[in-house]
Specification:
By secondary structure, the protein is an all-alpha fold. 57% of the residues lie in helices and 0% in strands.
C-alpha cells in the first residue's frame, strides 16, 4: 500500500504494487487477512488504479467481478468481521453481483 499511495518515499507506479498486493492476497492466512480484503474490495480511495494495471493479473477464465468475489468470500470465511458484515449487507440488499439470499445474509451477520 505504501508503494501504491507513494508513502515512505517510494515511487507511485501502480504496476508493482498491484502485483505485490495480489501475491499478498493469495498468501494470506488467518493471521494476515487485510491484503485479501483490500485486494478483493478494491478499496483504493486515495489512489485510483486504472484497469490496465489489474486486468492482466486476472486469470483468463475469470472476470474482475468473479475474482473480487472469490477474495471477499475467502477472507470472510477466514473470519474478518468487516468483510462478513459487507457480505451480509450485500446478500440482504442484493448488491451486485450477490443475489438476494436472506439465509446467507443472516449467516454472515452472525
Amino acid at each position: 500500500m505504501a508503494r501504491l499511495l507513494g508513502q515512505l518515499g517510494l515511487s507511485t507506479s501502480p504496476e508493482i504494487p498491484m502485483q505485490l498486493l495480489q501475491e499478498a492476497a493469495k498468501r494470506s492466512s488467518i493471521e494476515l487477512l487485510h491484503p485479501t480484503y483490500i485486494y478483493g474490495l478494491g478499496e483504493f480511495t486515495a489512489a485510483k488504479v486504472e484497469e490496465r494495471y489489474y486486468v492482466p493479473l486476472i486469470p483468463q477464465a475469470s472476470s474482475p467481478t468473479a475474482e473480487a468475489r472469490k477474495h471477499i468470500e475467502r477472507v470472510a470465511y477466514l473470519g474478518l468481521a468487516p468483510t462478513q458484515y459487507k457480505l451480509g449487507h450485500a446478500y440482504e440488499y442484493a448488491a451486485p453481483p450477490f443475489p438476494f439470499d436472506p439465509l446467507l445474509s443472516v449467516q454472515y451477520y452472525s
